[in-house]
Amino acid sequence: MSKFRPKDLSQIHTHELTPEKVNADIACFRNGFETLQVVRPATLNDGIRQLDQKQIENLSRAYEQASVDVIKFVPSSGAASRMFKDLHHFVNTYDPQQPLKNNLITNKLEHLFQFFEHLHELPFYKKLSAQINVSKNKLTSDHEKFEFIQAALAYAKLPKALIPFHDYGDHLLTAFEEHFYEAAAYVNQDGLSKLHFTISEFHRESFDAFLAEKIDFVSQQTGVKFQVDFSYQSCATDTIAVNPDLSLYRDEKDELLFRPAGHGALIENLKKLDSDLIFIKNIDNVHYKPGSKDEDVNVTYKKALAGLCLDFETQIKTHIKALRSEASASQIKTAQGFIQSHFQVSIAEDAQCLLNFLERPIRVCGMVKNEGEPGGGPFWVKTKDGEMSLQIVEKSQIDLQNGAQVQLMEGATHFNPVDIVCSIKDVDGNNYKLEDFVDYDQGFIADKSVDGQPIKALELPGLWNGGMAYWHTIFVEVPVETFNPVKTVADLLKPRHQSYVELR
User: Fold this and answer.
1) Reduced to 3 states, what is the DSSP secondary structure of residue 408?
2) Parallel, antiparallel, or unpaired: how do β-strands 414-415 and 362-369 relate?
3) Alpha-carbon torsion 51, 54, 57, 59, what sign?
4) How many whole angstroms separate alpha carbon 280 and alpha carbon 77?
5) Residue 450 forms beta bridges with which residues?
6) pTM
7) Which of 86, 270, 74, 269 is nearest to 174 (CA)?
8) Are 287 and 438 spatial neighbours (Cβ–Cβ below 8 Å)?
9) Which structural domains are found in the chain, ordered by start?
10) pLDDT for 187-235, tens place per residue?
């Protein structure tokens, strides 16, 4: 157990933490986290549902006709620094005496060959080329390309949400802005669309200024009014950083370092939303193409996922109400059968045991076919009590020394695009205490750096991984067209980010 100095205790108190909590985090660095026991990948008709056209139409219609309050929740605090990481490396190692191609080869950036040939297709090309006084349709010299990349790195200082993603002729749309257009299509109740963004407090003024400038134009284009809320990741969820030898990291002022504990900390933000249905989507997975086939598919499937969530919620709450009232032998048997059919879990013939299982928040998660994107996927996992459970599992949660587990991981047919519709209200209309449904043993230890010095950081169980481990879960296959992430700036050159139409 670490002994803290008076100055340390003041820091801990400022972060709304306790010495006991910090010592518990330090113990996690020493002891690590248990890996999950994967039983098999979730596949079509074995954990992943495939909706036919009739089901999609019926579920979409059910959502459209439902009298429910809905909101879109978009984690948006991420900086764009990782998006431009390779370009930073390029600029920092560039040798003007060598051809650009040689620079890329020497610095192991060969994967950027095509990127440099297509700089003119980036959404912000016209804006930046004018800045560096190059009035060309396409950059030709190595020096011009280097200057362009230097100018582009100004975007790396912004939140990813405020990076221009698409060029619609005379109008650039940022990721932040595109979420409004998309929300207007399916998070729209009587002409009002509600959105909630989790952002860094440091960038709040930038978001407010952007809204003041753009929101009236977007409302005019969509015919929808918007209600926008922001929240910050609570400092009470921050975790302490340690050196590689697990000693406490201290900066040049001899102060401890507390870091945001990953998107799993946003369970605190999520639980405060007062809506019947919540759509969750990452800030960088957006692709607004008005009137296009992709847009129609995206909107239709979002509505279908919402309809399925409502239908599933109705079934669960019907069983809960029945068990709360009389809990006859017949009702208990019916609830048992429902649980066995939907969750492959056997519960004792006891009303309270059945209620304990049923009374949980619900998530319906879209899954796309695995096409090699990095990230988690859907699996059947054996829980601590020996039951089977559907979970979204990251590679870091699997024992990579266990060949059988690795083989199961590699056999996954689908990928998690973070396309979720959820309900967090209980049968009485109150929000569940979402922290009660987190598996805190599913945290992460990540290797990071501060001012060039390596450190180890502790992250809470991921929002849609361990953060939702004990939620009711339904996986549904959705078309790959609904998944258009931008993890690096080069992703903006992919085909589905290149076909635009002009806003009118």
Assistant:
1) helix
2) antiparallel
3) negative
4) 14
5) 453
6) 0.92
7) 74
8) no
9) 6-80+238-286+295-479 (3.90.550), 82-157 (no CATH)
10) 999 999 999 999 988 899 999 998 999 999 999 999 999 999 999 988 8
